[in-house]
Write a structure and sequence with these properties.
heterodimer; A: mainly alpha; extended; B: alpha+beta; 5-stranded mixed beta sheet; two-stranded antiparallel sheet; 7 strands; 22% strand; globular
Amino acid sequence: MSSTAAPPSASPSVTPPPHDDEDDGVDVSLIRWTLSLTPSERLAVAQGFVDSVHAVVHGARNGRTR
Amino acid sequence: MAAPVRFVDALGVLGRHRVRFVVVGGVAAVLAGAPVSTFDLDIVHDRDPDNVDALIAALVELDARYRDPAGRILRPEASALRGPGHHLLMTAAGPVDVLGSIVGDETYASLVLKAESVELDGAVLQILGLPALIESKARLGRDKDRATLGILQRTLAERQRA
């Protein structure tokens, strides 16, 4: 391998795809993603959010009580 | 420590007891495909006596009690659940708001006509559809409702476009 090859993460040719947020700031790409999921998967995502917040809050509390 | 939030567990217990209800609020929005977050389950139940009896049985299984700032253990009773009021409960599956009615005089009987059926783990749930959720949020007009209104409207537009 050539020692002058650029690492993949430094490629200048990658352009992020356009996103079609409108003035209200709503992330349509996120809506399309959630709509692609089944109801069970959507609820699992919401559950994961709750679990993550719970873990952070209780992790912080446990850290303070040590 | 606070009770863990387990949406599926709460819905499962209600389903096993054959409680008639419509899911409203954040969980309904999530199930309808809106990318919003929520920490509680809101339901509007059928206030007919037979359904209230089934609801009480489910709430007993869920160890439900009112979220009382004074820390008292107050259990919901059938006579109160037959009324139009709101019952803000903590359960073994997290916060569950049991609502006799919402915005104005919307009850189970009127909301179920605007509901969508979704399948969740083999069970069919009635959730308030996006148009009705948007209408209720717009009518309530509180800060937290306005914050999600745009997301709900765009989600509905995307669903109609698809």
